[in-house]
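Q: I have 83 residues here and want to know how they pack in 3D. Can you give me a structure?
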Amino acid sequence: MATLQKRLDAIKAGFLEQAPAEVLAVMDRAHHELADSGIAQRILGEGAAAPAFRLQDNGGGTVDSADLLGRGPMVLTFYRGRW
């Protein structure tokens, strides 16, 4: 069975072979803009404590990190953009 990294590399290679050049150019530009922004230097490291937060949920309510942590461990996932 292939490792996850090998599977992801194969998916990426397949995409790069089929994607139009203008799409690849936009993606490349966005990648460089993110790299140049310095955002990677602000990423929390493994095991670091995240700051408390309050966010809007998909139903219009609010979610408080302290409330969630009061119920047990929490996994936070971010989705970029609108799909």
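Q: Anything worth noting?
A: The chain has a mean pLDDT of 89. The longest helix spans residues 21-37.
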